[in-house]
Every structure is written in structure tokens, then in C-alpha cells.
Design goal:
The protein is of the alpha/beta class. The protein has a domain of about 160 residues: Rossmann fold. Helices cover about 35% and strands about 15% of the residues. It contains twelve helices and twelve strands. α6 links the parallel β6 and β7. It starts with 7 loop residues before the first helix and ends in a 9-residue tail after the last helix.
Length: about 375
């Protein structure tokens, strides 16, 4: 993975802007291009910024076909409903949405579909049958990570569990996956559950608060959406002889810590290799870009676009982690899966590559710049 506390002041300013935007008259088609709207729910973390950059990059790659317009609803379903309704009234051809809820947006999505608008949800899904969903299997992601961590613990001991943004299908499915695995092992117990809201800062705060009354010696593993890097820093500071096994975050800081200690002499602690034991899986930030690409195919008349596209998981452990030297798309295709700290933000996730989206790579994730087009 991978998201998000927004200050009240920021929310107030953003919602005020949204009200103004929803009052705008219907937009006319520009230069024969498809008018595509992106409706983001919450923002405020690396994953969302990265995913948005990649959507913009995909739109730039197909700039001859797409006019992309971005709006932010914040973590409030009613605002996102209003936003989708206004997009439909403004003449959208397609709407790409990161849904704050799997069901709350259904009526607005259904109304958009009735207007002939293609609606694609990415990463988190919606249950409205007319919509298209593009996402990884979040349950499998969590269950795979939990099994790995429990195995590292010899199937006994205490776990610290970090949850994400409640109400989203991502958090719901991951929580179910983690808990189902733990239930299989009677000698494994979740002794602490904290809500990190998919935010590095919040995760650090809630783990620090929890550990104020606990000892790391009593925690055999950490599972959930964030927390590994925080745990390892605390353990390093305390002089712990070994680091706690962790799954499942895909942030570059986490994967750098998984590299063999001393393997990157230029890196400085805490953003440096620690030989940390972990399994790294994450929602790929290219899911929104893929949703846009599929929407373009559908608008072009390709009726083979499936209603559900499940993106394969990229599983990285201390056994197959590999440092990227250039960060090129071709290098990622050949198996590198972690970047030098100078190349990418610490909270941006590394599973950028997908054979499904050769249009977007590291420049897309960082700055919204697509890969160069092949000469015709």
C-alpha cells in the first residue's frame, strides 16, 4: 500500500471550492476529446498523490483523446455524491472515482450510467452493477502478508494490528483477511489494534501511544496498513538486538529498510537499509491510470472491457528485494522493486510497474509525466 487525515481548515477550503465547481454550467466537448472527470475522495498521503500523478500521466499520454478534470471530495460520501452528480450534469463522458464507500455512491453512479457515462472505480470498489471496478484482491493481499508474518513468529506470540481508513472496501477486506489468518492460529493473539488512517504521521503517533504502555519484547509481529518502519525505528533507537517481522506496506522507506544493512552507503538513517524482516505488498498506484485507459477503450467502442479487473499482486520479501539503479520502466519490468531514496518520496509506494500500463512509470508517479511514445 499506501492515506490521509485532512485538517478541518483544509476540508472547509476544499469543500467551498467544490460548491463553486458544482454550480458551473455544463461543459462543452473540447476539440472532439472525451471529457473525463476524476473524483478523489480523501487526499493527504503519498499513495493518493502518486496515484493521481499516474492518472494525469495516462491522460497526458492520450492527450489527443482525453480532457481530464480533477476534483476532490474529501472523506465525506455526500460530498462525493454531489460531485458525481455535477460531473454528469456537466457532460462527462467518463468518471474515474476513488470511492469513499462501496454503496453510498450507487444512486449517483446509476444516474450517471443512465446518461451513458462510463463510471470506473479504482483500488476501492463499488457495488453498483453498471460501474466498472479496477483493483487488487485486498483480502488476498492481507491474508498473504499475515501468513508470512505468523510463520516468522513460529505461529505463536503477540501481534500489533494497524488499520486504515474505515468504511472503504480496502480497509474492510484487508481487516477481514488479517483476522481470518490470525483465527487459524490459537497461539497467536492480536494484543493491540490502532488506526493509522493510511498516514505515516498518524501511524507513528498511534503506535507511539500504544507502545508507551507496552514493550517491544512482547510484540512478535506487526501486521496492517503501515507501522513497520515506525516499529523498526523505535527498536533501533532502543538498541533491540533484532527487528520485528512486518507485513504489508509498500512504501519506499519500508522497502529500503528491508535491504541488507550497509548495502547503500550513501543512505542515512532512518531512511536506510536495516536488514528488516518484512513482506511488502501494496495496492498499486497504477490502478487509477489503468481505469482511465480502460475507460478510453470503452469509449472508443471496445465492448470487451470487463466489469471487474483484478490486478495481480506484487510480492516482495527480503528474499527477492532488488534495488533499481535507474528507475526506468524497462528496469522495473526486469524485476527491480525498490528505489534509492534520492529517486522517490519516502511514503510513495514502489509497485509502479505493470505490463498492463507501459504508458506510465516512475516519472509518471513522481510528476505526472508519461513514458515516451514509440515512433510510429
Amino acid at each position: 500500500m499506501g492515506r490521509r487525515l485532512i485538517t478541518r481548515a483544509w476540508m472547509a477550503a476544499t469543500f467551498g471550492l467544490i460548491v463553486l465547481m458544482t454550480a458551473l454550467p455544463a461543459a462543452a466537448k473540447s476539440n472532439g476529446k472525451y471529457t473525463v472527470y476524476l473524483s478523489m475522495s480523501y487526499v493527504g498521503n503519498g499513495w493518493q498523490s502518486e496515484a493521481t500523478n499516474m492518472i494525469k500521466a495516462m491522460a497526458a499520454y492520450y492527450s489527443d483523446k482525453v480532457d481530464l478534470r480533477v476534483q476532490v471530495a474529501g472523506p465525506v460520501a455526500q460530498r462525493q455524491i454531489q460531485q458525481i452528480n455535477s460531473m454528469a450534469q456537466a457532460g462527462a463522458d467518463a468518471i474515474i472515482v476513488y470511492p469513499i464507500s462501496p454503496t453510498a455512491l450507487n444512486t449517483a453512479i446509476r444516474d450517471a450510467c443512465k446518461r451513458g457515462i462510463a463510471v470506473f472505480a479504482y483500488d476501492s470498489f463499488v457495488t453498483e452493477p453498471c460501474a466498472y471496478n479496477v483493483h487488487p484482491d485486498q483480502y488476498e493481499l492481507a491474508a498473504t502478508a499475515a501468513e508470512w508474518v505468523v510463520k516468522q513468529m513460529d505461529r505463536k506470540g503477540n501481534l500489533l494490528f494497524v488499520t486504515g481508513v474505515p468504511g472503504t472496501t480496502v480497509d474492510t477486506e484487508r481487516t477481514r483477511g488479517y483476522r481470518d489468518v490470525v483465527k487459524k492460529y490459537p497461539d497467536v493473539k492480536i494484543v493491540g489494534e490502532v488506526n493509522g488512517m493510511w498516514s505515516l504521521a498518524i501511524t507513528e503517533k498511534v503506535i507511539t501511544e500504544f507502545m508507551a504502555t507496552h514493550k517491544w519484547d512482547d510484540i512478535g509481529g506487526v501486521i496492517g496498513s503501515g507501522g513497520g518502519w515506525t516499529a523498526w525505528q523505535a527498536q533501533k533507537a532502543a538498541g533491540a538486538p533484532k527487528l520485528t517481522p512486518y507485513g504489508t506496506d509498500g512504501a519506499n522507506a519500508t522497502r529500503v529498510a528491508m535491504l541488507p544493512q550497509g548495502s547503500m552507503p550513501s543512505a542515512t538513517y532512518p531512511y536506510a537499509p536495516m536488514s528488516a524482516p518484512a513482506i511488502s505488498l501494496e495496492s498499486t498506484p497504477m490502478s487509477g491510470a489503468l481505469a482511465l485507459k480502460l475507460a478510453i477503450k470503452l469509449l472508443d467502442g471496445d465492448k470487451s472491457v470487463p466489469k471487474e479487473t483484478v490486478i495481480p499482486l506484487q510480492i516482495v520479501t527480503t528474499d527477492n528485494i532488488k534495488l533499481c539503479k535507474t528507475g526506468s520502466w524497462a528496469e522495473m519490468r526486469d524485476g527491480c522493486n525498490v528505489f534509492d531514496p534520492k529517486m522517490i518520496n519516502s511514503d510513495y509506494v514502489d509497485n509502479i510497474y505493470s505490463p498492463l500500463t507501459p504508458e506510465v512509470g516512475l516519472p509518471a508517479a513522481m510528476a505526472g509525466t508519461p513514458e515516451p511514445k514509440s515512433p510510429q
